[in-house]
Specification:
It is a single chain. With about 110 residues, the protein is mainly alpha-helical. The protein has a domain of about 50 residues: Orthogonal Bundle (Helix Hairpins). It has three helices and no strands.
Length: about 110
Amino acid sequence: MKFLIVALLMAVVVVQVLADDEWEQYKIKFNKKYANPEEEQRRYKIYLDTKKKVEEHNVKYNNGEVSFSLGINHFADRTPEELKSMHGLRLPEQKSKSEHKQKAEAFIRPD
């Protein structure tokens, strides 16, 4: 029983070390720098959540349940709200009907 507990704890440590190494590689690859350790920890948690979602989606892709795969990119440390504000649909301001009036021109049919 003790062996099983020790083996399980070692597996958890190995997984954490791998996740930390991937995080360091992510920061290097995308030149990520954070204002302070608290901000980095917050971004790390977001990154881990994103990574989990990507992995879950790619299992579905491998099972033929979805038609595309996902990967980690430079936005993996951003929240959905941040992404929406950065890339959301931005419609031009609505103009009043009076601003849309155009001078009518005669249509001349070509010969």
